[in-house]
Each structure stands twice: as C-alpha cells, then as structure tokens.
Amino acid sequence: MMFMILILFHASYVSGAFGTEWSVKYNQQEICALNGSTVFMNGTFTHPENLTVTEKFWTIDPVPGVKLTDLSKDPDYSGRVEFFTDDQKHCSLKLSDVMKKDEHQFRFRIITNVEKERWWGVPGVQLRVTELHVEAPEEVTEGQTADLTCKTTCSLTDPTFIWYKNGRPLTTKTIKNNQLHLQIVSSEDAGSYSCAVGGSQHLCSTAHSLRVRYPPKRVSVSISPSGEIVEGSSVTLTCSSDGNPPVTIYTWFKGSASVGEGKPYSIPNIRPEDSGEYTSQKSQRSLSFLFCLFQILQRASQCPSVPLSTCSVSYKEVMSPEPNPTEHLWVILKQKVEECKVLGHPPAL
After folding, report:
1. What is the pLDDT of residues 131-146, one digit of tens each?
2. Which residue from 124, 187, 192, 273 has the highest number of Cβ atoms inside 10 Å of its Cβ?
3. What's the rounded Cα separation, in Å, for the pair 122 and 84?
4. Same domain, 137 and 230
5. Is 62 within the bounds of a domain?
6. Is residue 349 a part of any domain in this protein?
7. For the ranges 97-106, 162-171, 289-298, 327-336, which has the lowest average pLDDT?
8. Residue numbers of the domain that contains 178
C-alpha cells in the first residue's frame, strides 16, 4: 500500500557541460508510511543529451567524501528495493516491508561515461514511518459518551480508517476521520478495540481494552435443594448478578429485618415461622440497589398432600424481563395461591 503526500514538484537542476540541463524532480518531498507496508517514491530526471548514462540508482543520506551506495547492493535493503526507469525518464523506487530504521532522505543518483558528469537529486524524499495505536480511556461508565482515536506519528495521505471490536469490523458505530464515537456507552461496548487503514488491514494497531462500569444486571436467584422442602431441612438461597465492578457484598433481609450477609443465605432446620419474603440487597460502592426476591409460601404442615413444587414459587419463575421484578413476583404468587386452592390446600401467606 502506498502512502504519500502529493505536492508541487521539487526540482534539483543545473546546466551541464554540454549546455543541456541536469535535473531530478520528485513527486513528493515527504512520505508517511505504515511500518510493514510498501512505499513508492517517484520522480523524473533529465541529463545532457551528449552524455551516456552508465548507472542509475537510489541512495540514502550522502556523506561528504564517502562513495554513494546503490541501495540494491546494501545488505539492509537488498531484496526489499526495486528500481524502475523508462524512456520518458521516469524514476521510481519501491521499498517493501518498511521499517522504522528506514527513516532517511532518499535520493536518485545518475552516473555517466564522463567522470565529472554525474548527478544526484537534492534534497530528495524524506521517509517517515509510523505505527497505528488506539488512544482511548481505559474505563467509562454506562450512559456516558466515549471517543477512541486511531493515532499516527505522521500524516498518512487520505487514509480510510477501519475499526474492529474483538477482531470483528465495526459497521454500526459512528466513525469520523480517525475517531470512533460511542454516543451512549452500554455494557455491550466493553471489549478489545483496534484500528487499521483501508488497503493495509493486515497492519492493525495493538488492541486497546475498554472497560465499562455498569450496575448489576441479569439478576438470578437460586434455591438449594431444588426439590421439595420439608420442615426440618436446610435451605440455601443464593443471589448472583452481572455487574462491573462485580457485586461483592449482599445483605439479606426477611421483611425489614437484616438476617445475614454474603452471596448465599442458609436457613438450617427450616420451620413454619421461616416463611416470608426474603430480599437480598446488594451493597457495592455507590451503585444502585439490586433486589433478589424469593418467597417461601409453603408450610409443610398446611399442604401435606401437595408437592412443594406446586405451592411454592420457583426461582426460575421469579426471573423476568419485566422492569418491576417485585410486581412480577406477586403475579406469580397469586397464580400459585389459586393452584393450591383448587387442590384444596390453601397456603398460608
């Protein structure tokens, strides 16, 4: 992929001994290229007509008193450079697998059959080499906006930036120039972001991890054992959720009274008086409350012939996409009460 800055021709010329002009005109004075890419340097040249050109090659950073080296014979460039010229006196250098150490001034050299009639084009073409990297916050809070920027150390020419999340191209987000704009950040925006330039997608930036802080979601509550519960047995209620930062402290309540802390809450030797509404209130920094609800409706002595699974609320039934989980819970409770009444064993509430 070629990246270059097109400007007015820069010319280096002088009258030759035979009255005809020497000149080298470069299409660009500076080129910005991605590390690992392929770059072309182009120009045109002229020389006195009565001279015979014996050598034409590209070289770098001439040093006074030191013979100019043909890049194709330089061990650092051998196999990575190609020279092209034609009858219209166009001259081109193709440099593959560009590296940071290639940042030099490249010049075209002309040697003729007359010892003192030789020329190089000054000042030449300055090569700058860059890599892509993502500049973005490490962490944002859900609901905020965020901008991710694909940065370079020099200016590529008319690049088309491509963004990836977890290795997949992003097509539904707002991309402007080298920025990816996240208008309203959600938990789904967390992930690994990288960028590339069209035509050189294989030269992707290093991935940047974006974390999103959000209150607990996907609340779940489980009961163990999951089968029938009889008086005298042990019951464990467990509350879990997805949040960032993760929930670390749960405070359990029976009604308005605190009965314990921790993800699980155990009731050993369950008795009829253990019936009630159990709530797990999440406490984690300043984030909003999380409620895990489980209602024990069945007293073993009041519905002896009806399996507990019929007269109690399953934790799976409590989980609902409804915005008000408490309201949804009581809908389930009413349904279960009617079921028990039909069977002739009304549960105590």
Report:
1. 999 999 999 999 999 9
2. 124
3. 19
4. no
5. yes
6. no
7. 289-298
8. 133-206
